[in-house]
Design goal:
Distance between the termini: 51 Å
Enzyme class: transferase
CATH topology: Rossmann fold
GO molecular function: ATP binding; identical protein binding; nicotinamide-nucleotide adenylyltransferase activity; nicotinate-nucleotide adenylyltransferase activity; protein ADP-ribosyltransferase-substrate adaptor activity
Family: Belongs to the eukaryotic NMN adenylyltransferase family.
Radius of gyration: 22 Å
Strand order of the largest sheet: 3-2-1-4-5-6
Subcellular location: Nucleus
Largest sheet: 6 strands, parallel
CATH superfamily: HUPs
Cofactor: Mg(2+); Zn(2+)
Number of domains: 1
Structural class: alpha/beta
CATH class: Alpha Beta
Number of helices: 13
Strand content: 5-15%
Number of strands: 6
Shape: globular
Amino acid sequence: MDNSEKTEVVLLACGSFNPITNMHLRLFELAKDYMNGTGRYTVVKGIISPVGDAYKKKGLIPAYHRVIMAELATKNSKWVEVDTWESLQKEWKETLKVLRHHQEKLEASNCDHPQNSPTLERLGRKRKWTEKQDSSQKKSLEPKTKAVPKVKLLCGADLLESFAVPNLWKSEDITQIVANYGLICITRAGNDAQKFIYESDVLWKHRSNIHVVNEWITNDISSTKIRRALRRGQSIRYLVPDLVQEYIEKHNLYSSESEDRNAGVILAPLQRNTAEAKT
């Protein structure tokens, strides 16, 4: 199958990135290798979308810092970039709305830059056309629009399993995410993503749009463990990109005080979905 027949894919990772770690970056590489290796897809871009402050997660430092750290982490990447749209929203935005925003952005960009047709270019130089052109010839004169890349949600197995947490996700949102966009889930030892998909009727129905990628080189880095090490004055070198480590140290970002931020505050999705469920 040549590249023109493959579906172009944009990987979107949503999350706190508090702070971004080397493992977050590895997810993109693992997903890209897997999707390209199927022979059916070509990954053309990766997007990191840090959540806004209105998410109200405990220990969540301001989005301003989290975005800068993500930008520093991807500084040398040729295909992964940081998008600030979600982080700049005054209210928390559901993941489905973030996916929709990026898909619509790609579609708008595609309309602005239609692929030039060589046939149309020839038209400007040569106008001698007979009236006996058949419909197939006329069709060939129409501008050729390149297919819009498909946005897919890149996540870890923990996000997949969070679908089962009451009121954390709207059931209709889960359905639309897996049906209309799709998931690329990176799973590690101890996570049985396939079993979780089997036990969920919605996920099972759309299992063909869920790609489970095994991470064979196990890596247990997490933002929570990074913050714990920083609170204890321990080194985080080689767990986060060097530029991120330098930024954290320069601004003294993580401490016992920052970890208490939003303590006692109900997480935005739980608050919103619980309230809507009562109405």
